[in-house]
Amino acid sequence: MSAILSANAELIITIVKIVLLLFIVLTVDAYLTWFERKLVAHIQSRWGPHRVGPHGLLQPLADGLKFLFKEDPTPAGVDKFVYFLAPLLALALALTSIAIIPFGPEPLRLFGREIYLGIAPPDLNIGILALFAITALGVYGVALAGWSSNNKYSLLGGLRSSAQMISYELALTMSVVGVLLMAGSFNLTKIIEAQGRHPEWGFLGWNIWPQILGFLCFFIAAIAETNRAPFDLPEAESELVAGFHTEYASFKFAMFFIAEYTSMTTISCLCSILFFGGWLSPFPASWTWTHYLPSVVLIPFGLWVIWDGIRYETIFGRVILPVVGTAITALGAAFVLYPGVNEFVQGPFWLLSKIFVFLFIYVWMRGTLPRFRYDQLMAFGWKLLLPISIVNVIVTSFVILAKMQWGGK
Amino acid sequence: MTASLVVFFALAGLAVIGAVSLILQKHPIHSALSLIVVMVALAGLYLLLGAEFVAAVQIIVYGGAIMVLFVFVIMLLNAGVEEQTSISKLAGPPGLLLVVALAGFVTATIVRTTAGVQGSSQTGAMASTSGISNMLFRDFVYPFELTSFLILVAVMGATVLAQREKP
User: Comparing C-alpha atoms, which of A262, A244, A240, A241 is closest to residue A252?
Assistant: First the structure.
């Protein structure tokens, strides 16, 4: 038994990692819907979900159950095979892309093995290219769903989405070239390490400063790639009912939904990694007191959850919220007590914080900006984003060349 | 049988099945989907050969951009199921002859070169990204730029042809 275990250790570790990441990502997606509804509601002076559980925290669970038990009719005249393939494709590709993200610099040392955070090996040389490859295939889920549904609104949604994704993929790819030139590698870990060349500079060493144009192009194009507001024309409800997923009900609809939120998470990871230093701390390396920041965030938050929970009259609020709060507080306290653990969580803490900020911006934009018109969308992508990103590549190359000539490297 | 050989045969089988299905499918969208399967399987084969960059570009360019355009055009024109005609009597025997000739040629080539084929783990200069860029932008920079120029001319030609006539 142990011989088999040790012979296939790498395989077993990978499978465990996949299961864990799948569980985490699906939970994050579920609570992302809650977060989005809550945030958009507050932007619009509403309460948002607050009936199911304290602060509506059980709403994602209720939604999940609803998706599972709803009737799932297949409309007449659909192309059966493609109709069933499309949501599977969308979900599978979205989940695959997150496997390439590295989540921390230090491997976890367990059972005498080094286990890196993230599924792909840290020396994956084509990291960013692999991500773009998966994104490039992602359009099929939406396009095929629209085509196979035998519905004119779906078809229009699918067509819009294909055109939009083709147009913005160019700008998306071009805007990253500047970062790749500066790092000299496609490897995501190396891209982050390149931003930490000057540990004393803190956040001033990140790619966002020299690559601010690239970042703006990348983020806008990425929002368009994920079909999110203000680029959500493929599902514009005022024109196309629900666009490409009009004819999808029950869990097939949920699959599109999960795919969309997973790509949001992936894009947020990418923004943090490519332009905002990934797991690097924004503070200079000599400020060691900043290493206690995870605890400074976690302990008050945990205490607040306990205090908030005991005010509720329901069992869920009174029992579960205080337990969760205690767990969070204990986690924060553990980081203070065990310096080794604290050092280990620094990387993931900063990366997750940055990802959270980008998810917030995603939702914030949805709550703020009106939808583009179709011609505006095309003109914006081709006539503004693409030229700017090409100019960015040229300027970056010239600066790097000048540094190599006269910088004395 | 090593693990890489198993993966090779799985991918090769997928590519062949996709290619056959591409021809046999009645609907253009199904044919396009089969072609995507072939492209992705080929990318997997490149990956197996250690050519990571080529594999990624294969999916981005062929699987992503070009096939998306195919699917887009098929959807836009709303092409239906293809019409079937009885196979032309003239096309039968010469076609069979061509198939036999092609199969013979491929077999002969394989038989002739098996001795020279190296293990699949070997990666040449073309495999790494820097190797490819050195080839493209140093050794073959003029042919490369000329090709880009040719494509630019083609794009401009397409734009001119597609333009509406001025009133």
Answer: A244
Nearest to B45 by CA among B6, B2, B1, B7: B7
Cβ contact B64–A158 (<8 Å): no
Query: Does the residue A59 lie in any domain?
Result: yes
Mean of pLDDT values over A32-45: 89
Question: What burial class does residue B85 get, using C-beta atoms within 10 Å of its C-beta: 0-12 exposed, 13-18 middle, 19+ buried?
Answer: exposed
Range of the domain at A349: 2-286+338-406
Q: What is the mean pLDDT of residues A157-166?
A: 82
- Looking at this predicted complex, what is its ipTM? 0.77
Q: Spell out which residues of chain A touch residue B56, defining contact as CB-CB under 8 Å.
A: 126, 129-130, 132-133
How far is A195 from A280, CA to CA, in rounded Å?
A: 8
For residue B31, give how far its alpha carbon lies from the nearest alpha carbon of chain A (Å).
Answer: 12
Chain B segment 4-33 residues within 8 A of A by beta carbon are: 27, 29-30, 33
Per the domain annotation, does A110 fall within a domain? yes
Q: Is the Cβ–Cβ distance between A187 and A403 less than 8 Å?
A: no
Instruction: Using a CB–CB cutoff of 8 Å, tell me whether B72 touches chain A.
Output: yes
DSSP B102-114: HHHHHHHHHHHHG
Residue A171 lies in a domain: yes
CB atoms within 10 A of CB A308: 15
Please check the confidence at residue A161 and state whether its pLDDT lies above 70: yes
Place of tokens 């790619």: A207
B-chain residue closest to A133, CA distance = B60
Neighbours of A177 (CB within 10 A): 18
Across the interface, of B29, B52, B60, the residue whose CB is closest to A147 is B29
**What pairs with residue A110 in β-bridges?**
A113
Number of domains within chain A: 1
Residues of A with CB under 8 A from a CB of B: 79, 81-82, 125-126, 129-130, 132-137, 139-140, 143-144, 146-147, 155, 158-159, 162-163, 165-166, 169, 173, 186
Residues of chain A with pLDDT > 70, as a percent, come to 96
Amino acid (1-letter code) at residue A254: A
- Residue B129: which of A79, A137, A186 has the nearest Cβ? A186
**What token pair was written down for A274?**
């490519």
Average pLDDT over residues A294-322: 82
Q: Return contacts of A299-304, CB within 8 angstroms, 24+ apart.
A: A299/A328, A299/A329, A299/A332, A299/A333, A301/A328, A301/A332, A302/A326, A302/A327, A302/A328, A302/A329, A302/A330, A302/A331, A302/A332, A303/A329
Residue B153 has pLDDT above 90, yes or no: yes
- Inside any domain, residue A77: yes
Q: What pLDDT score does B120 carry?
A: 46
The percent of residues above 90 in pLDDT, for chain B, comes to: 16
What amino acid occupies position A285?
A: A
∠ CA(A255), CA(A260), CA(A263), 5° rounding?
Answer: 120
